[in-house]
Specification:
By secondary structure, this protein is of the alpha/beta class. The protein has 15 helices and 24 strands. The chain folds into two domains: 210 residues, Enolpyruvate transferase domain (UDP-n-acetylglucosamine1-carboxyvinyl-transferase, Chain), CATH 3.65.10; 207 residues, Alpha-beta prism (UDP-n-acetylglucosamine1-carboxyvinyl-transferase, Chain), CATH 3.65.10. Bound molecules: uridine-diphosphate-N-acetylglucosamine (UD1) and phosphoenolpyruvate. The site of phosphoenolpyruvate has 10 residues, from helix 1 and helix 12.
Length: 427
């Protein structure tokens, strides 16, 4: 279905409180990890997002039955693997779905998964996933755009990732959890979403040691039991709203946050002059009556400044007088927000993965999101300027932000997404 654009009448101060959703990027691998158990699993804090629907469609194809048992609670049950093939039509919708390979391989001994391909901002290789599987004893062949993996026994041995990869670590952990081998992963990701999946698996009886360090030791276990688990808060969504508050020089309160997961973002905003107060799972972000300063930002793997917050931060800096430099070596091509921000009057010069940003006053314009966080960048830009900005490409925002227009309205923004019937009547 063609979604109607998001209309934002900007130039208003935000205020009030917003409950941050649970982490999309933890929920997705945890849903996949539930396939390792043949017993029922209940997950709480699952955000209602199109990416969640996509992974549930894929899991359904593999053999998972699911039911929503509360607004954000999901019951999953995979008594047996019915299909070991994850086809292109399902995998290509979301690159993160490639980690289904590790789960199917663990449970069924073989898996065929389509190559995920690129994404809106460029290539996103999976060579480290494949190298890990091979090094741990799986046979991998490539044919007709598919990777086929097979193991004769349990995975075993040591693999050192050549770079830090969140998805590669998820995939290798999933593949190694069942069996009687011992797998050591070196240079593994310490991302919060990796830790959360490991804590979930351990709660079902897995024996994975070292979560949060660069060395993971996975002692295979014969089977996992069922269980119940609550997903961590979404640090990327929290950061997006913190930046929206700074960009509109507002004061807002965020609940359901893990301040310890947000250090890099908090430090940068504080350096700019934003006042941030932490209290348990609550953050108050205050940028009222402040002259914010330009800063330089370079993305890094967790705990560094997240690439998933780079487009939003670039947008904030595009409104702050002075020169800021933003570099995204994690995803050097993640720049689809730039041309759209130019349409709104931003002064951003790109060279490789570097954006040199001269602060300017942005103005409303029709714009189009080409990916999820570029969409976030555009709604932040829209909130800062007088007049109405119409943002197309809402399907990308729906991948990662639950009920966005409604929740922005809860903060006092004038944001609406006309119903399709109303929109066509207005044409
Ligand atoms: C669903 C999900 O959780 N997505 C997140 C995950 O993506 P994803 O897991 O795909 O990202 P990775 O951590 O794997 O990628 C990090 C870097 O490693 C490179 N790489 C990765 C794998 C590989 O086999 N070879 C290789 O070269 C990538 O091109 C990138 O430059 O982490 C990214 C980096 O924090 C985030 O932007 C994504 O939002
Ligand atoms: C890029 C993201 O997700 P994915 O890796 O699924 O594209 C994201 O969450 O910002």
């Amino acid at each position: 279905m063609q979604l109607t654009p998001l209309h934002i009448q900007g130039g208003r101060e935000l205020g009030g409180e917003i409950a941050v959703q649970s982490s999309k990027n933890a929920a997705l691998p945890i849903i996949v990890a539930s396939l390792l158990s043949s017993e029922p699993v209940t997950l709480h804090g699952i955000p209602r997002l199109s990416d969640v629907d996509t992974i549930l469609d894929l899991a359904h194809h593999i053999g998972t039955r699911h039911a929503w048992v509360g607004p954000n609670s999901l019951s999953l049950y995979t008594p047996e693997i019915l299909n070991t093939h994850a086809p292109y039509a399902l995998v290509s919708k979301m690159r993160a779905s490639f980690i289904i390979m590790g789960a199917i391989l663990a449970r069924a001994g073989k898996a065929t998964v389509s190559m995920p391909g690129g994404c809106a901002w460029g290539p996103r290789p999976v060579d480290q996933h494949v190298k890990a599987f091979r090094a741990l004893g799986a046979q991998i062949t490539e044919d007709g755009g598919d990777f086929a993996a097979e193991r004769t026994g349990s995975l075993n041995g040591t693999f050192a990732f050549e770079l830090l990869t969140v998805g590669g670590t998820h995939n290798a952990v999933l593949a190694a959890t069942l069996g009687d081998g011992v797998v050591v992963l070196e240079n593994a990701s310490i991302d919060t979403d990796v830790i959360d999946m490991i804590e979930f698996l351990n709660s079902l009886g897995a024996r994975i040691e070292g979560a949060g360090t660069n060395t993971l030791t996975i002692h295979g276990v014969p089977a996992l039991r069922g269980g119940e688990y609550t997903v961590i808060p979404d640090r990327i969504e929290a950061a997006t709203f913190m930046i929206a508050a700074a960009a509109t020089r507002s004061r807002i309160t965020l609940t359901n946050v893990r301040p310890d997961h947000l250090r890099a973002v908090t430090e940068k905003l504080t350096e700019m002059g934003v006042d941030i107060t932490e209290s348990g799972k609550t953050l108050v972000v205050d940028a009222t009556n402040r002259d914010l300063k330009p800063v330089n930002v370079t993305t890094q793997s967790y705990p560094g400044f997240p690439t998933d917050v780079q487009p939003q931060m670039s947008t904030l800096l595009a409104t702050i007088p002075g020169t800021s430099v933003v570099q995204d070596p994690v995803y050097p091509d993640r720049l689809t927000h730039v041309a759209e921000l130019h349409r709104m009057g931003a002064d951003i010069t790109v060279s490789g993965y570097t954006q040199v940003i001269q602060g300017a006053k942005l103005h409303a314009a029709p714009v189009k999101a080409a990916d999820l966080r570029a969409g976030a960048a555009l709604f932040i830009a829209a909130l800062t300027c007088e007049g109405e900005t119409v943002i197309d490409g809402v399907q990308f925002l729906n991948r990662g932000y639950e009920r966005l227009a409604e929740r922005l309205r809860g903060l006092g923004a004038d944001a609406r997404q006309p119903e399709p019937a109303l929109a066509s009547a207005m044409d």
